[in-house]
Structure formats: structure tokens, C-alpha cells
Write a structure and sequence with these properties.
Catalytic activity: AMP + ATP = 2 ADP
Strand order of the largest sheet: 2-3-1-4-7
Keywords: Kinase, Nucleotide-binding, Transferase
CATH superfamily of one domain: P-loop containing nucleotide triphosphate hydrolases
Protein name: adenylate kinase
Pfam families: ADK, ADK_lid
Mean pLDDT: 89
Strand content: 5-15%
Order of helices and strands: HEHEHHHEHEHEEHEH
Family: Belongs to the adenylate kinase family.
CATH class of one domain: Alpha Beta
CATH topology of one domain: Rossmann fold
Length: 239
């Protein structure tokens, strides 16, 4: 069905066309973002996505979408969840494999929230190797635990895009509203101090070994700096 573009300003259309033309010359990249809750991944990933023409894959969102759409993998995942079991790594890797075949992922992807363990990392590597591909870079967002509580408790998110804001460090132009769409922001139920402590414990015990697994591809980012400084460090790492 044709899309009606009559209401889209010409300058916005031209900007999008130029961006898509620029994307055709971009090299492929497959990137993993690693970091504890509140480290700034959600702030930086839209920039990385746009600059390098990548798709952003958040496995939690993908899983919920697959269950809602009742895809074969989604039905398998729902069966596990209904039984009170964890969704298997094979199902999650299968979702990633399906997602990375979409046109929007033709230049590569950003993986956020996976892999969380070395076992998951190995399964991901095996899936990519079958396609002659591999992870190119792992961006490790390093923030002292002591700073994370304030970051997480003050965070607000635009659920449709994943854009995140902070009531102190990066507030939206209008309180409670996304800068781009004007839609309401939400506070995730897990964004509280008690939940954060538990998640930090899980992160350090399970996910830190993933950094060692990808040691030769890891770039450590001092992520407790200003957003633009972190963005500049990421640009250097991915250049």
C-alpha cells in the first residue's frame, strides 16, 4: 500500500533520502553493548544506530513482540514462561537470527541485553559463524556502582523508541514528554534502588565474564562522563 508523504516537510524527506544514500556506503558492523543498569546504553544506542545505519535489537522487546505475534519461536517462549521456566538461550538466539535477516539490519546490528553469559555468547558466535559473520566490537560501559542508583531512579523512557531521559542529568524539553514525538514517557517498574542492587549483583557475577570472552574486541568506555564525551569515545572506537 502506498505511503502518503504529502504531510511530511520536504526538508525532512530530503534529509532522510540523503541519510539512506549515505547508509549504502557504510561498512557492516555487529556490536554488543555491555554495562550495568543505568550506564547510558539506552542514551547512546540511538546515536550509534543512526550514525552506522544499524538495527537495534533489545532481546526483551523482541521476546515480547514474538509472543504477542504468536510466531513459532514466540509460542515456544510463551510455553516456557507459562510453565514458570526461563526462555532457553536457543530460542533467544533464534529470535536474533530471524531479526538480523530483516532489511533494516542489512548493515549490521546493535545487541543490547544479550549475551548475558558466556554460554549465550558462544551460542551467538556459533549462529553468526554459520553465516560467515562475527561480532566486531563490544562496547563496555564502565560506571562505578555508587553512581548508578541516582541514574536509574531518575530515569524516564519513551517505550516506542527506547530513548531515555533523566530528570536531573538529561531532562526532556517538556517534563514527562518525549522530545521527538510528544508522547508520554514512562518509568520502568525495575528502576528503583532495591531492584538495582540485585541486578548489579547478577551483572557482575554473570555478565562480566562475557567481557573476558570477547577480550580482543572490547573497548572500555568511561561512561560516567557527559553524554557528548561518551559519544565521542564511541565514535573513535567504531571508526
Amino acid at each position: 500500500m502506498p505511503v502518503d508523504l504529502s504531510e511530511v516537510p520536504t526538508d525532512e524527506l530530503m534529509k532522510e533520502i540523503q541519510h539512506r544514500l549515505d547508509c549504502t556506503t557504510k561498512p557492516e558492523k555487529r556490536i554488543i553493548l555491555i554495562g550495568p543498569p543505568g550506564c547510558g546504553k539506552g542514551t547512546q544506542s540511538p546515536r550509534i544506530k543512526y550514525e552506522h545505519c544499524l538495527c537495534h535489537l533489545a532481546t526483551g522487546d523482541m521476546l515480547r513482540a514474538a509472543v504477542a505475534a504468536k510466531t513459532p519461536l514466540g509460542l515456544e517462549a510463551k510455553k516456557a514462561m507459562d510453565a514458570g521456566a526461563l526462555v532457553s538461550d536457543d530460542i533467544v538466539v533464534g529470535l536474533i537470527e530471524e531479526a538480523t535477516q530483516r532489511a533494516e539490519c542489512s548493515k549490521g546490528f546493535i545487541l543490547d541485553g544479550f549475551p548475558r553469559t558466556v554460554v549465550q555468547a558462544r551460542k551467538l558466535d556459533e549462529m553468526l559463524a554459520k553465516r560467515g559473520q562475527a561480532i566486531d566490537k563490544v562496547l563496555n560501559f564502565v560506571v562505578p556502582d555508587s553512581l548508578l542508583v541516582e541514574r536509574v531512579v531518575g530515569r524516564w523512557v519513551h517505550p516506542a523508541s527506547g530513548r531515555s531521559y533523566h530528570e536531573k542529568f538529561a531532562p526532556p524539553k517538556v517534563a514527562g514528554v518525549d522530545d521527538t514525538t510528544g508522547e508520554p514517557l514512562i518509568k520502568r517498574k525495575d528502576d528503583n534502588a532495591d531492584t538495582l542492587k540485585a541486578r548489579l549483583g547478577a551483572f557482575h557475577s554473570q555478565t562480566a565474564p562475557v567481557i573476558e570472552h570477547y577480550a580482543r574486541k572490547v573497548v572500555a568506555l568511561k561512561a560516567d562522563r557527559a553524554q557528548d564525551e561518551v559519544a565521542s569515545a564511541i565514535a573513535s572506537a567504531l571508526s
